[in-house]
Structure formats: structure tokens, C-alpha cells
Design goal:
The protein is mainly β and about 120 residues long. It contains no helices and 8 strands. About 15% of the residues are buried. InterPro entries: ApaG_domain, ApaG_sf, Uncharacterised_ApaG.
């Protein structure tokens, strides 16, 4: 894993796209990836592990994020918003991004575990 990149996350519950009877709980998450290193790098792919309150797990693997494979220069950041639908009002997401630097060295950047939770569901 690479420590030159920092990943921060904010989440939101989207009640108008959720339906408790149908066990559909919709969340958005905004990711900010900041390059604190001395080299640019391009985000190539993502890996997500999504876990709901029933301990049901799913993975998402794919190229880029929101249809992009951004190059993040030193001192710069890239921000995007995406979404997730769970069968429970609480869950977690975690994973990693794969990057490549100008020297063609590939490396992973960890996405720390974060919670998705319907407001007031947790004390």
C-alpha cells in the first residue's frame, strides 16, 4: 500500500430512493483522494468490499471511478460521488484503488472501512 495518497470519505443516506418494505437503503458517498507524494499517478481501477448488517458481502471490481481514470498530481486531489444500495439500514464499505506512476510502477491505495447508516439508527 502507498502512504503518499490519502483517501477521505463522507456519506449520506438518501431517503427518497430508499424503501424499508423492499429492504432497499440507498446511500451516497463522496471520496476525496489527495496526493501528498512527489510523483503524479493515474488511478486505474477500484476494488470494493461491501458488507451489510446481515454480514452479506459483495464485491465491486472495475476500471477507474465514475467513468474516469484520473491522473492526480503532487499536492492535488480528485473528488467524486457515487452510491450504494444495501438491504439493511447499516453497512460498511472498504477496499483499495490501483494506481500506476510515471515509472510504470503499480501500487495500491487503501480505502479505509467506512460506515453507511440510516440517521438515528445507531445510538
Amino acid at each position: 500500500m502507498n502512504d503518499d495518497f490519502n483517501v477521505s470519505v463522507t456519506t449520506a443516506f438518501i431517503p427518497q430512493q430508499s424503501n424499508e418494505r423492499e429492504q432497499r437503503y440507498t446511500f451516497s458517498y463522496t471520496i476525496t483522494i489527495t496526493n501528498h507524494g512527489s510523483k503524479s499517478a493515474q488511478l486505474l481501477s477500484r476494488y470494493w468490499l461491501i458488507t451489510d448488517a446481515n454480514d452479506d458481502k459483495s464485491t465491486v471490481v472495475g476500471e477507474g471511478v465514475v467513468g474516469q481514470q484520473p491522473v492526480i498530481a503532487p499536492g492535488e486531489h480528485f473528488e467524486y460521488t457515487s452510491g450504494c444500495i444495501l438491504k439493511t439500514p447499516v453497512g460498511t464499505m472498504e477496499g483499495h484503488y490501483q494506481f500506476i506512476d510515471p515509472d510504470k510502477q503499480m501500487f495500491d491505495v487503501a480505502i479505509p472501512v467506512f460506515r453507511l447508516a440510516q440517521p438515528n439508527i445507531l445510538n
